[in-house]
Amino acid sequence: MRTGILAIWNDIAPEGFAHFERWYGREHLQERVGLPGFRCGRRYEIVSGGNQRFFAFYEVDSAAALTSPAYLERLENPTPWTRQVMPSFRNMVRTVCDVRMATGDLAGAYAVVLRADVAIVPTPAAGAFVDELAAQDGIARVQLWTAAAEQTRAGTAEMKLRGGDQLVAGALVVECVRYDDAERVAAKLSKSTAALLGISGTSVFGIYTLLCTYRRPDVASPRPA
């Protein structure tokens, strides 16, 4: 069974920003990662490129954790803080993914993200490309995600509060040690790379800096899927 990911990109209305920051760091990460099957949650902010200011992802034992009764119960019964912040979300992208490929066991300070909004069908050469990229100096971890067959059901109380979500096909996420490493990776991810990964249609590229991480105390550091 593949490791799962909940991938999120969003903007926030200016008037809701201060609450958004407090909510994420003091309640939301801890609340979500405390659910069965969750391993950790990570928050990022855009440095260059992209079309949403924030990027976050949660690592779970498998994508099934994101359709479980315990998780759905939480989505249908938001906390007071969550009810206050959700209407401030803008341009929300949220997709349950399978980790198709992963190499490296470190967490980097920067993430280079190539998001496939329409389609991603990894080619036979994609695995060698991921391994080659992860072997380079300054690269902490490389992951290739594709949308899971089963998504969290639409129309939950949380989704209604923020007005709906966009689904994407998947993403390549390259965690880097330094910003110079991220810029080097960014230069490498050309149109030919998108073709090699099987990305077609609209895609979005950005470099993000890590804001914070929350990991379950009983879960070890990240390992390849």
Keywords:
225 residues, alpha+beta, Alpha-Beta Plaits, eight-stranded antiparallel barrel, two-stranded antiparallel ribbon, 7 helices, globular
Structure description:
Helices cover 28% and strands 37% of the residues. The longest helix is centred in the first third of the chain and has 17 residues. It has 225 residues and is an alpha+beta fold. It has one domain: Alpha-Beta Plaits, CATH 3.30.70. A hairpin with a 4-residue loop joins strand 2 and strand 3. It is built from seven helices and ten strands. The strands form two sheets. An eight-stranded antiparallel beta barrel has the order 1-3-2-10-5-8-7-4. A two-stranded antiparallel sheet has the order 6-9. The mean pLDDT is 95.
